[in-house]
Amino acid sequence: xxxxxxxxxxxxxxxxxxxxxxxxxxxxxxxxxxxxxxxxxxxxxxxxxxxxxxxxxxxxxxxxxxxxxxxxxxxxxxxxxxxxxxxxxxxxxxxxxxxxxxxxxxxxxxxxxxxxxxxxxxxxxxxxxxxxxxxxxxxxxxxxxxxxxxxxxxxxxxxxxxxxxxxxxxxxxxxxxxxxxxxxxxxxxxxxxxxxxxxxxxxxxxxxxxxxxxxxxxxxxxxxxxxxxxxxxxx
Length: 235
Known about the structure:
6-stranded parallel sheet; single chain; 235 residues; 46% helix; 2 domains; Rossmann fold; globular; disordered C terminus; DNA polymerase, domain 1; 6 strands; alpha/beta
């Protein structure tokens, strides 16, 4: 962790991969997948991002729910898994119930108790995906806003998506503290003017995209309340 960012006026977190464990969607069906569970989780996530960026670059208008299904179909086929409508439906339902990482709830509760700053999610997920995951994980009431990229017709790292956060709270971009576990997302937020924090749970220690570096690096969301506390600023 580096420095204090106590001047932030709102705290916004990315969704899947940061708050929600996307691999958890696959573990819902681990009994049917066996050894393919881990490879499917990794390939499905990679293709979900790739398909979103392809849609962004080609101007295709769609939402992340449709892309999630397309990515799953490809991942299952690429891994030699037979077509199975019931298993596919089970995995898609699992994505709507992707569990929060263990460090999420305690951090959000601590931030809510400190008061003074609204909390939000900002995700490429469609509105229905975002609401479903937040409710399934018991986090819905902890957020002041759930912001989906869907109304913009774009996906992160497009600037229009990051602009949703300052617009929602009537703040300057720099007043938004944005936390993501994805280096590309951190760079996108920083280039859009948000104060970006990299959540480096894997403790890689070395980021990417030096042209848009994070304002701070944390290893767990448990570090976030201290990072933005008034006592940290005074110190």
